[in-house]
Amino acid sequence: MTATLVMLGSYLLGAIPFGIVLTRMTGAGDLRAIGSGNIGATNVLRTGRKGLAAATLLLDAAKGAVAVLLAGAIDPGLMPLAAAASFIGHLYPVWLKFRGGKGVATLLGIALALHWPTGLVFALVWIAAMAVTRFSSVGGMLAAVSTPVTAAIFYRFELVLLFLALALLVLWKHRTNIERLLDGTEPRIGRKRVG
Q1: Total of domains in the chain
Q2: Is there a domain that residue 194 lies in?
Q3: Is the pLDDT of residue 34 over 80?
């Protein structure tokens, strides 16, 4: 029963669409009708509101971290379950007909809560890859892929499979970005995307 409640609570926490909530509260419009239609921080940035984008990133990361830490306060063994449930909640929120974000910021929060060195490497890879390539999608995907590798390097083998599964989900959610990268139409950071 405890595991079920933790999983449900973590899913509902992860399913909070902060990007949509913030843009609506500030009169920036319906995020799903802007740019790529995604609910994450990168698309919020396309509204021209850098502060809103930063807030979305922080809140999306925080919900993953909070879900894991709350589960840990109940039973540390439930932390991976909470991590997976909150992540699925962000990707497939019931409130938005299961059409959610791509999970990069939420995975950052999860990584920091489960094993902060992995989270730190994630953040560094994300920033470095975006700075070098100017592609938000590349930064997010490489950061996600770094999590199982970093966990293994630190001998946190109990987390490797979880991080691998979450990283694969991030790649799946970025499949259209991968297609655009291959055909040279992926927008770089700082350029607005139409449609």
Answers
A1: 1
A2: no
A3: no
